[in-house]
Amino acid sequence: MIILDYRDKRPLYEQVTEKLMLLITGGALSPGDRMPSVRSLALDLSVNPNTVQRAYAQLEQDGYLTTITGRGNYVSEKKLWQAGHENALRTQLKEVLEKVRDGGLSEEGARDCVREVYEEQGRMRS
Amino acid sequence: MIILDYRDKRPLYEQVTEKLMLLITGGALSPGDRMPSVRSLALDLSVNPNTVQRAYAQLEQDGYLTTITGRGNYVSEKKLWQAGHENALRTQLKEVLEKVRDGGLSEEGARDCVREVYEEQGRMRS
DNA sequence: ATAGTGTATTAAATGACTTAATACACTTAT
DNA sequence: ATAAGTGTATTAAGTCATTTAATACACTAT
Q1: In the structure, what pLDDT confidence band is assigned to residue B121 with cuts at 50, 70 and 90?
Q2: In a 3-state reduction of DSSP, which class is residue B59?
Q3: Which of A4, A59, A122, B34 is the most exposed place for a label (fewest CB within 10 A)?
């Protein structure tokens, strides 16, 4: 379900959080779907239950999951995370744009990057 | 000369490296200019000399500084870092673009962000 | 010679992350 | 009711990168 990258400098719980989020927003997991239990996912990833717990807690905080004690974690309705997700993406992009803009990259240069990256997506679909 | 942000999660040496780099690429420091000594900058920033040394070493590695043992660190000629700098900015931007693209942000959404951020720059100039 | 450079090394302190071992309350199925 | 499986919380220990501290050495300029 998930593959962890131990060369990545980011903490494990952050990787788990991000990958699960992508499975949800990408539609691989649908609203109402039950998530694997904290313990079982920890076993799958060869990771401590606390680490998975931390990821689940973050995902619930951000509206992607709804937790029911004793039952499990369930993917939330789209309306609960859609807006926040879109906003987070834009904020993330803008922060880097401000950084590279201050670093001297021209608006044209930035547009080039956008074009290249989204052309790349086109190739992936074919 | 530099103000450190202790709320920033990134290590100090990384902040110092980035800020000095911006002073160089931004033209506040010109090729040939002598940098403050490792010890004096460390005093200025209330930071350990090792931390400054690490920043200087990174800047030399990336071509922004030329080090002469016993004399000091000097801002390198533009040709030594110009290309690498431009490339680093593009790579940095592209990595985030791929991330938000995979997260579901449309190409139009990305273009909006570019427009907004560079409009912001226009306002700063006035 | 003396003072100021960059550089290197070793030791200790700090803090975030991770693992480990439990424990408890709740829900479901038997 | 009992047992198994949930989420949740706590405490302790270990790991690792970062940072500080204290030196030491080679080089350069005055």
Answers
A1: confident
A2: helix
A3: A122
